[in-house]
Automatic annotation (TrEMBL):
<dbReference type="InterPro" id="IPR006311">
    <property type="entry name" value="TAT_signal"/>
</dbReference>
<protein>
    <submittedName>
        <fullName>Tat pathway signal protein</fullName>
    </submittedName>
</protein>
Length: 54
């Protein structure tokens, strides 16, 4: 399994934020989105978890 470098992680996170930024343009919704980065022991790397708070 290839290791994820810091540069690769930042690129992946940036791409995820870019996708998340385009989604609200397509739809309107109430509430605030909170994106949290957590370490997933099963995958052995960081993972983004998103939740909507009213």
């Amino acid at each position: 399994m290839p290791k994820l470098t810091r540069r690769g992680f930042m690129a992946t996170t940036g791409a995820a934020f870019g996708v998340r930024a385009v989604a609200p343009i397509a739809r309107t919704g109430g509430g605030r989105r909170i994106l949290t980065l957590v370490y997933d022991k099963g995958l052995g790397m960081m993972r983004a978890v998103e939740r909507v708070v009213p």
